Predict the structure.
Amino acid sequence: MIRSPVSSVTSALITTRPRVTEVIASSVDRTFGSVILKYGGRSRAEKLDADERVRRLEEIVDQYEDPALIEKPGRFFVHPRDPDGVEERVRGRRGARTVVDVSWNSNYEPFSRDIGVLDRYSKFPRNHRAHARVWRSRGGGRPVVILLHG
């Protein structure tokens, strides 16, 4: 059988294409992995030895087992203030339904005796803004779910 130069090149490409794809995929995996390890890495808890982890968990348990939280639940479940800085952005409309993204300044502060936790939380501006997506329906209709994530 006589093979033309074109069929030889084509068959070479077909047999090498998986190798090229593997090289590219491997390169993407390595790059993605290094970024995850660099920026994700191990959490602060994972960097602690077993004894230190247990000690920190016991501190948290002690904080939440405080009888004053049962006697005065308002210490833990703080009544929220009226929101300020409310912004609404219509995301879409379909028939009688409207999807609206709502955001407002959050006055939430984490419940913690650990000043370090409060400092870490407060240094991220994104933690000071709450967001919700609301599905509204004209004319009443059935109840609608509001999903919050913070």
